Amino acid sequence: MLSFHSVKDYQTLLRNGKTTCVDAVSFYIDSIRRNKHLNAFLEVYEEEALQRARYLDEKRLNGATTGKLHGVIVGLKDVICYKEHTVSAGSRILENFTAVYNATVVEKLLDEDAIIIGRQNCDEFAMGSSNENSAYGPVLNSVDNTRVPGGSSGGSAVSVQADLCMVSLGSDTGGSVRQPADFCGIVGLKPSYGRVSRFGLIAYASSFDQIGIFAKNIFDAALVLEVISGKDEYDSTAVDDIFLYKKEKLNDKAYRIAYFPSTFNHSSLDAEIAEKQKGFLRKLQDTGIEVVPIDFDLIDYIVPAYYILTTAEASSNLSRYDGIKYGASNREKEIELQINSTRSNYFGKEVKRRIMLGTFVLSEGYYDAYVSQAQKVRSILLNKVNKIFKEVDAIISSVSPTTAFTFGEKSNDPIEMFLADIYTVFANLVGIPGISVPLFKHSNGMPFGLQLMASHLNELTLLALAEKISAINERL
Ligand code: GLN
Hints:
Elements: H1 7-15, H2 21-34, E1 41-44, H3 46-61, E2 73-77, H4 104-111, E3 115-120, H5 154-161, E4 167-172, H6 178-184, E5 187-190, E6 210-215, H7 218-228, E7 256-259, H8 261-264, H9 271-286, E8 290-293, H10 299-317, H11 335-346, H12 349-362, H13 368-391, E9 394-397, H14 414-419, H15 425-430, E10 434-441, E11 447-453, H16 459-475
Parallel strand pairs: 2-3, 2-4, 7-8, 7-9
Antiparallel strand pairs: 1-3, 4-6, 5-6, 5-10, 9-11, 10-11
The structure holds glutamine (GLN).
Residues 126-129, 152, 171-176, 204, 310, 421 line the site of glutamine.
């Protein structure tokens, strides 16, 4: 039986003939079958994955050069296009839609010998924090099946948590990689805006969306980032700067980390989480990392600004689903009726709520009161963050105010659900990278950790520091 710890160890086993890609794929297919109740996968590409595994085994045995992700078994959130495979964004409106091209990240994974094992469940159009908004049913947290896995990339997080694949790609518009990673006790990396091409990612809010990575450890996340980052002629926002994890450059670095006391003392933060995290910050000081408090009085503006801007962008992005060009359609004689009935029938409740909210804030007479104000908040935050990163290497915060909550606990109160994104949306508003580092266990049995954020395109510091604090925690 395969016991997967890291890509590096697995590839050593492959090279030494101790395992094969076929064995690994068979192990994960079996594991997915045994854990079907978790509802993490919407589709598993059994035959295809096995066939690719056979091809890769042969390639290796023939002595050919192998890719960086040789034999690595990857799951894709159901918002990433994989040519000739269904991609539904967790929605009925795209239930039978087949991708006509590969997302750039998929091309890059395949070029480096990865094996794609299946399509993972998520909140509809990546809108949600609990996976309860998927048209295909919720995903269960494998630590406690009565609890949510987080969202919107819940299927991708649980797949790594429960050993259904080695790494997954999700998307993070306001926390959808970092928050489920935290709820599941694994690593979740949201790269800087522009670090990874969004070509072939189904859009939710284009100026916030980024493809992110779930992994068992920080090094694996860094390796996948090396593969998927870089410029792309199909996405003009993708920056021309390939990421390489040369952490030895930072070996003797004396780190300085900022925290906002207003966030650690926020009334929504669970008392036990706050206590553990504050205690850990004190211990970091003892190891020589400087931890400095910085005033931040904008905390209560960030969730409203995020939900105004993302719903505005979503209402525009989702107008393409009209029953004419893509996906499901209710045929009617009148075109307007057809659009109405298609959208009414096939979009879920949360997606409709956001389209309506977004259309409202964009409408004449309200634009200035909402969108313009939110844009101002966004630029104030950007100025603030640029100043902060002149002084420190990283910002540390909680990922979520609570550990994974139970099903139904927040789903009837959208405002409460939105407010729980308080710690994650900041990084998307200003485009910086963020990572959730699993560190602790709550007395309720659930995992939680801390989030680190670094300056734009400074994933090197982010990941190296994340490794460092993980190691410190292990020694404690
Ligand atoms: N929970 C947030 C939202 O519902 C984040 C979603 C995401 O990052 N895709 O908008």
